[in-house]
Amino acid sequence: MYKSYLETYSKSDCCGCSACSLACPVSAITMAEDSEGFLYPRVNNDKCINCSICIKKCCLSSSGLRFREAGASETQNNNSNCYAVKNNDEKLRRLSSSGGFFPALAKYIILENGFVAGAAYDDKSMVHHIIISSIEEIPLLQGSKYVASRLDNIYERIKSLLEEKRLVLFTGTPCQIAGLLNYLGKKYESLITADLICHGTPSPVIYHDYLRFIENKYHDKIKSVTFRDKVNGWHTENITISMNSNKYTYTWERDPFYTLFFKNYILRPSCYQCRFARHERISDITMADFWGIEKSKPHFDDNKGTSLVITNTQKGQELFDKIKAAFVFDNAAINDSKQPMLKHPAVMPKNRPDFFKSYVNKGLVFCLKKYADYNLRAEIKYRIKKGIKKILNLLRNIKTICRGIKKI
Ligand SMILES: Cc1cc2nc3c(=O)[nH]c(=O)nc-3n(C[C@H](O)[C@H](O)[C@H](O)COP(=O)(O)OP(=O)(O)OC[C@H]3O[C@@H](n4cnc5c(N)ncnc54)[C@H](O)[C@@H]3O)c2cc1C
Ligand code: SF4
Ligand code: SF4
Ligand code: SF4
Description:
alpha+beta; Alpha-Beta Plaits; eight-stranded mixed β-sheet; three-stranded antiparallel β-sheet; 13 strands; 37% helix; 19% strand; binds flavin-adenine dinucleotide; binds iron/sulfur cluster; metal ion binding; 4Fe4S_Fe-S-bd; Polyferredoxin-like_ET; FrhB_FdhB_C
């Protein structure tokens, strides 16, 4: 039995979806940012009429399940199928974080005169959900942005489109899908939902400060951020930050923000008790990285990215069948891919509270040094390792050339 944040006031019981605020009949709830940069509902007791609708509509409470089921295409996942997918369009696949299943899906919806909602960067590289309706806009939504995306008024805009019987694809984290379904509270035939297998979403405040830190370090202005840049192949997770005159590319182990994310210091509190870290999905289609493909399907892996796609409903399966000419695919079993987030949520480090205390009292740079190994020694070690790797590659290439010459 799960309770809502509006009953417990425990931060792990709120994913910030804002369904409660939109459901309140007297507009008594506003969403406000806490010191970690995450949004939570705040009730104005002078306006509140104690109707409990907000609690009933909460997408993380057991009582909210009824609304979610009413909004979903189907509630059973009896017919789910798994696939390994690589988009045929190499350019599109390169821009995506996995195998580029998402742009294939988005393209189909737009060609059917539909709308696609997903996460995009704004002009300050912060992340918000937007709605697109043209093929040219698809790259805005491509690629994983490892920070909590602000939903703004997206649910209301989607509802208006659905009321006009327009085709809509909503993509996002499972809790964002759950929030939408709870808000809608009824089935719309023209709604398609696609969720991600989700590790958790990092704090927008830490991310914002981190971007300012990079700008100060380089005395330059950031133009764009690319998590999961495939510049050194899909198996090596890189972040690239492009500035006016500089370019910064580091692996996740050497980028302090990425490190804090993967070490689980800066996730939203609800992520450590995620209700959606399970095999049963709430969307029509689930999109993820096909981690472990180099072992389970080595013939399929080209180190340019493979998506794991799970069709959860009949609607999802029909859609997959309609667009399958856009990609190469292979049938798979769910255990072919390493997916811890289908079994349990991310584990909270014991010293996460200390991290945020230090952040408030001593600032970001102190935290980067203490919790993300951001120091000169680690940097020198990294550069030596990188240098050795380069020399070994060079020697390997020379050896191959010599062998070729000998044969001649
Ligand atoms: C925060 C986060 C955590 C993830 N954790 C895992 C994981 O643990 N295991 C795993 O296998 N896959 C995870 N993924 C999913 C994976 O990284 C790819 O996004 C997914 O495989 C789709 O890739 P694609 O190549 O098909 O298309 P892409 O073009 O890469 O897909 C982009 C899609 O991701 C959505 N998106 C991007 N950033 C956000 C965001 N901040 N919030 C909501 N939606 C967003 C876009 O709206 C779009 O639908 C995560 C993604 C995100 C954003
Ligand atoms: S109890 Fe009713 S009036 Fe009060 S905040 Fe919740 S929905 Fe609004
Ligand atoms: S409906 Fe969403 S924002 Fe409101 S309390 Fe529940 S999880 Fe939090
Ligand atoms: S881990 Fe769970 S609670 Fe956190 S963003 Fe992902 S789906 Fe939402």
